[in-house]
Protein 1
Amino acid sequence: MISRRVLLKRLSSVPVVGGLFGTGLISSASTPVAAVGRDYFKELGVRTFINAAGTYTSMTGCLMPPEVTDAIKYATGDYVNLDDLQDKVGERIAELLDCEYATVTAGCASAITLGTAGVLTRLDQSKVEQIPDLTGLKSEVILQKSHEIGYAHAIRNCGVDLVFVETRKDLDKAISNKTAMMWFLNTANSKGQIQHEEWLEVAQKNEIPTFNDCAADVPPVENLYKYTKMGYDLVGFSGGKGLRGPQSAGLLLGKKDLVKAARLHAPPRGNTVGRGMKVNKEEILGMLVALELYLNRDHEAEWKLWESQIQMIHDAAASVKGVTAEIHVPEVANHVPSLNITWDQSIVKLTGGEARTKLSQGHPSIQTVGGKDSLGITTWMMQPGQERIVARRVQEVLHQATT
Ligand SMILES: *Cc1c(COP(=O)(O)O)cnc(C)c1O
């Protein structure tokens, strides 16, 4: 064995990167350059920001609590068998959420694709390898027109056609021996003519598996149990939204045979539609720990915190002449205290877009959402204390635009 001192000495005489790197002999982590304390984002010229917007993939979703990153770091230190880990974590999640079975997926979209694939093939290995070729398989998934959403592409990845219905009559007519699954978008429940229970009732009568996409639907915590208990065969959640787990993780919950079938499409298996949906051991463990933490959280206290934070920003914004600030809570999905700020543009001479740009280009950078004439803010994805900065900056930006 070559001593570290000698290695370092030799290294310092290696003229170019690439000499020893990439040979497997040494990794960049053991170079003399200290890995701790580096400001990687700054080195890369990537700007960080305060997230006053919410759980957006483009904004990298959520921040994981330290217990989750500790679990991730823990998992980096040893090899395990990927299927063993998924089995054990799946059993533990099912126990925690009191459902038949569960697995960690690469996000809710991945849960949808894997779930659909599992429904199509069940546990038949030859069929697994055939997807997205549907020869001899069912080929249609039914959903309501009011539930149409880009994420439904995750269903089509399996080669199936989406069949849209509006009325109960449409639904009854659309069901055939080609129907593989009936898909439901939880957040659109009240928008559709057919609601949770009726959708389920029709599906069960026709022995068609159901999927409920609940991606962004915690809080409330009850939703983690509600729809599997209601009877939905498969339910999907994002790991990197309200659960504050890894951004590239999610949960597929439901009937054991269907979740097991979905697993046949996931890594480590390669000849599958889901091979590109790998979840590593770090994220699998991180997802479990994030879920445990979420379940043990004081949800009431957290809600009160969000309320007081949003009130502070509300008060700051509303103190500006011509500005109206309204606190509201979306009924389903991103169900948290939220602020909608509008203003009389003859007094505050700014469009919504201009206000958002000023906030994102200021110091510190703050990301918000909103429409042409409005500014939308939530505090649940902020670090504690950042609400003060946001309140001050929102007030400043709006005030500066008044005449
Ligand atoms: C975010 C979202 C998804 C995608 O979830 P990922 O975890 O990002 O894969 C799917 N459906 C709905 C309704 C969502 O809000």
Note: The domain at 4-60+299-400 is CATH 3.90.1150.180 (Aspartate Aminotransferase, domain 1).
Protein 2
Amino acid sequence: MDYKINTKCILSGYSPKNGEPRQLPIYQSTTYKYDSSVEMGKLFDLEASGYFYTRLQNPTNDAVAAKIAALEGGVGAMLTSSGQAASFYSVFNVAQAGDHVISSAKIYGGTFNLFNVTMRKLGIDFTFVSPQATREELEAAFKPNTKAVFAESLSNPALEVLDIETFADAAHAHGVPLIIDNTFPTPVNCRPFEFGADIVIHSTTKYMDGHATSVGGVIVDSGNFDWTQNDKFPGLTTPDDSYHGITYTERFGKLAYITKATAQLMRDLGSIPSPFNAFLLNIGLETLPLRVERHCYNASKVAKYIKDSGYAVEVTYPGMEGSKGYELAQKYMPNGTSGVISFRIKGGRDAATKFMDSLQIAEIATHVADARTCCLHPASTTHRQLTSEELIACGISDDLIRLSVGIEHVDDIIADVAQALEASQK
Ligand SMILES: *Cc1c(COP(=O)(O)O)cnc(C)c1O
């Protein structure tokens, strides 16, 4: 039965049997007991499925991963301890030293550093392209050793909407997968697999958790990419000596990528979430559609208010007609984008500081996408090391404010923004 997403958020991943707990139990156990060494041996050979060590698999974590796989329409998923770990594993699962990856340049700052600094040290080369790149511009970025294309469906913090189909077509024409970070829209507003993406990742720290309690991430496999179509992915299509010569594509078919990520990368690198954090994430997921709908409702009212107030030079909210990205958002996320707005305040850096300091409800925080409205002035915080020229290159002007609209009553948020806008001009 293919339920609607609201129903999947409640039911998917865990179905209690007669007399069992209705809420997903927290299996806070490192290890699992078996009656014979023969039985346990089969698990180690990946011949039987079952639990033996929580770094590889845990029933609580697996139930939550299965729920997110259902929400995205994938065949399998793996939870990670952070969004950063999910980004790293998603690429490292198909690329190694000597390989090359194409990434959108407008991505989360932490992901950019991971790719541009840390993964380069591992010998993986990156080419960064504009998320607005045309097919021709994308073509020019491919090399014979390109193994994947990576981009955000709705970028943080620039709020650029990706033309997913253009990126997917280009990737597939070169026999490589498209990996999408779908953190901002969540599967409630955008399902990248429906537009040709092959792998989806999330920082579950944001809307999925929704309450600012747990850092976490997830990788979801669509099961659609054919790893055997060329010889670019020997890690998936030739025997893994560290696993008794298993060939992932032969043994696991559509689950090859996600099984390798678990059996090899998670085994070797760690970065699992604690079952308790997975439990908290699961509670967040139960109300995700309700919250996302309200975040978008509130944000669109606030964006319109700021635009009409005359205090902003420019307002970016791709869910709002007339905003940058509106047309693409209508195609890829027609029911809403996210709760995040950015705007350039009249009066420059000075006005931006006064605005921030005058807010009563909205908190100043280097975070986005949870229940509480929060606000950030990138030029004086996250990007304060950059020179004015560098700021302009990242698309961040010193009058830019990012507002993550929460689920307080919209009238209260607007009243707060209104008085702070007025105070900003004094
Ligand atoms: C926050 C964020 C990340 C990193 O996730 P963490 O959970 O903080 O490690 C990755 N991508 C996007 C779009 C994010 O907003």
Note: The first strand starts at residue 76 and ends at 80.
Protein 3
Amino acid sequence: MTIYNFCAGPAMLPADVMQQAQKEMLDWQGLGRSVMEISHRSKEYIALAEQAEQDLRDLLAIPDNYKVLFSHGGGRGQFAAVPMNLRGRGETADFLTTGSWSQDAFDEASKYLSSHLVSKTAVKEGLSFVPSITADMVNPKAAYFHYCSNETVDGIEVSDVPETGEVPVVVDMSSNILSKPLDISKFGVIYAGAQKNIGPSGLAVVIVRDDLLDYAMTETPSFMHYQTIAKFNSMYNTPPTYSWYLAGLVFKWLKAQGGLEKIAAVNTQKAELLYQCIDESDFYINKVHPDFRSKMNVTFHLPNTDLDGVFLQEAEAEGLVALKGHRKVGGMRASIYNAMPLEGVVALTNFMGDFARRNK
Ligand SMILES: *Cc1c(COP(=O)(O)O)cnc(C)c1O
């Protein structure tokens, strides 16, 4: 039976990538060793690292005045690294909070500076939506403006980049980076924990505009210090080498799919199919305004929580696994990142349709 893994993170990786990693596990590039068993300073590894960065730059069209850092500590590491690295720009930072992750980023930043809430998710006619941010709402003296482009737990995606005037925009893109093309020049810092759309957990990819490298607090640990990481090409300390290798395979896979325009079209098709199934069912409920529905994490509730257990059990018996919603919101969540094939979503919607008919 085919297993379709809807886990929010660590999430499934493309089957082709996993097969290549398996094939190369014991003998990478004829070295008679695994890539995880060689020095990060070897010429072979350095070539891999540089290629991965180049492929990421190509995919996202990252301009030359941005550094790409392969850092430790996942997404939450950046919740602390961002305020520590930008504290020199100001005593306060402005936040848009749209759900669980941006709230946690807000709280963590408060240890290093004064976090200020500019706006947050609101509810109109029972549907969650995210108010637009315009420059007049932002404190021009703020060190930065932070938001999360995709709330993994809540299933809320923000597509418009906030208008902040001169204040650099910092975005947590952990769960929707590489899901569609992006205008990098609108951002000061983009960061993402790897385990949703990039590779294994532990790694964070940080894309930072180079004029922002000079503002760190002196207490910033060296391995989290953007300027230091950049100076050492992300090898100030030993990087998460195997995660970097797998990320590189994922970038190559994305290029082979035709790049981000192509993957975005597939992602739209997958999400539309699933939301259509929910909307037409008279059974499943999604409470996010259509403009802010996530294309990566589709959340929904059954009409009655007593059915949750059976739904999950029957889904699992069909090979549809890890659909349980986050404990903070309950219900169900189908995470359909880049690696989820269209067939997985078709299988899920077939099951959901059938389950609804039988349990109405
Ligand atoms: C998963 C996630 C994180 C946390 O990542 P960790 O690697 O567990 O620290 C942060 N932000 C978002 C949006 C996430 O989805």
Note: Residues 260-279 form the longest helix (20 residues).
Protein 4
Amino acid sequence: MSRSAHPAGPRYADVLPEGHYTPPPADLNALDARVWSRTVARDAEGVVTVGGIGVKQLAEEFGTPAYFLDEDDFRARCRAWRDAFGADADVFYAGKAFLSRAVVRWLHEEGLNLDVCSGGELATALAAGMPAERIALHGNNKSAEEITRAVEAGVGRIVLDSFQEIVRVAHIAERLGKRQRVQIRVTVGVEAHTHEFIATAHEDQKFGLPLAGGQAAEAVRRALKLDALELIGIHSHIGSQIFDTSGFEVAAHRVVKLLAEVRDEHGVELPEIDLGGGLGIAYTSDDDPREPREIAVALRDIVTRECAAAGLAVPRISVEPGRAIVGPTAFTLYEVGTIKELPGLRTYVSVDGGMSDNIRTALYDAEYSVALVSRTSTAEPMLSRVVGKHCESGDIVVRDAFLPADVAPGDLLAVPATGAYCRSMASNYNHALRPPVVAVRDGEARVIVRRETEEDLLRLDVG
Ligand SMILES: *Cc1c(COP(=O)(O)O)cnc(C)c1O
């Protein structure tokens, strides 16, 4: 990417630290298809539309801030993942990215399975009719109650994450007179190329049992001894927002090595391998994610090659994309409230939401794009920082963005690619009311998660 001086003046380059200066796009009104969901476009008046409905109409009807989810795009992504991996593999959508009953129904209809990692997510999945055998339960500290509900419901797998849990799940299954299908989550010592706090496969972390040093092999040994457990495979999740498959290559190599050791020691070939999620999406035009088909071919090739080398039959593969399915399908719509120009620095544009509806910028230094969506503009690009309304100077939505210099209170801004880890991580900080999620499809918009009200807040506050 070129990082040259901006034609509108070198002052833009001066503000940003070295290496962080990206010149503004040639046309601020253009919508990069990479970061916007499939049905997003501008109409003849220059208003951005999704599913055929303009954002001004959406803002009037549903208020701001709000998340608008492009249902066609969501379903198309589900099908792309399912078709890419085919009938001899399983795609589990990671519910923690964003879960609601409508989403569960879409997943069910499009033939995907579902990962949950809490009692609340399990309840949502079951309430919306996801067949239990298509649900996997994750987590490094599942409560006895969560395990009990999962075993009772008959979930397809529980991913075991500690020595205590092996025994705990076995006891509960035994008590309920069931044999529970389980996988063991291992850490393979791979650090995915991404921000430290969202990389999870290096060994110094809370998830999984390390392959190195033999803890993973010991977990297999213990699980195989327990009649109430049916050990179906090994699970590895190496990180988040990953753009190349080399990390998966190392992970598959090491997991297959464990499968071979298990065969040698116990005479058992475990039939499944789960390679986790973590596939990246485009938050800005600089990101270039791979298509599901490319990823599927690469992962299958890796596993096939490793198994051939180890003399093992190729196990059934599963993957767990969360962000890669829901992330690109939604944008957050905000209204501009105040604008503060700091001469020689930049312009702060305040919107009516912030870190309560998108914590990722503050938490991970995540990068986002932003566009003026209620109209077009021919004004020159202005280096801006889009900030929220919370009492925290780190309350930043988009750290460095170019907006047209005539942006004004009342304008609508949209931040694309907020479908994953925004509503699901939303908070009530400053007693903010968490925004609604509105699904849009074929000229129709419907609320799938309603906006919180002050009554909702006061209901929990029992005085
Ligand atoms: C978070 C998580 C995922 C999904 O990660 P994405 O980055 O959203 O694809 C998949 N599997 C496990 C075990 C996870 O913890």
Note: The chain has 13 helices and 21 strands.
